[in-house]
Amino acid sequence: MALVLCTGIDLDLMVTRKLILQKAGHTVTSAMHENEIVAACRANAFDVAVIGQIEASTIKHHIFEVVRNNCCSARILELFTADAGPVLPEADLWLEVPANSPTDLADKVFELANGTGKKPPDRVHPLRRFRR
Question: Which of 20, 64, 69, 87 has the fewest CB atoms within 10 Å around its CB?
Fold first, then answer.
């Protein structure tokens, strides 16, 4: 199973995500602040980093850059809400939350950790679906 970094701003959601991922057999480290993310990345070679939904896209982009620069080996899963849509075209995979099933998060992490969650080359970029 995967070593996962779980980021976000809502403590309750972070706890829930950690439990879901641990139940699926993943080892999870949670980090809510930039300094926690950097410290976790220095201490671990994460397989997957989950970037939780964040209202301000500028903050989400910043967290993405912190993760990408400090957890170079991690593949990134962006969580997003239907009303906000995905904002990280550089992410490796996306998941709309709330998901249809609690196992959707664990399934996406498994896909990324095993290299099966790559973006297909002919896929329409997810941001194009949500532009108004």
Answer: 69
CB 93 within 8 A of CB 119: yes
Using the Cα atoms of residue 12, residue 99, residue 96 and residue 69 in order, give the sign of their dihedral.
Answer: positive
Query: Please, what's the b/e burial string for 42-78 (b: 16 or more CB within 10 A of its CB; e: otherwise)?
Result: eebebbbbbbbbbeeeeebeebbebbbebbeebbbbb
Count of alpha carbons within 13 Å of 123, Cβ hemisphere only? 12
The CA distances from residue 53 to 1, 69, 79, in Å, are: 24, 20, 5
pLDDT of res. 98:
85
Contact in structure between 104 and 43 (CB atoms under 8 Å): no
Decide: 117 and 98 in contact? Cβ < 8 Å: no
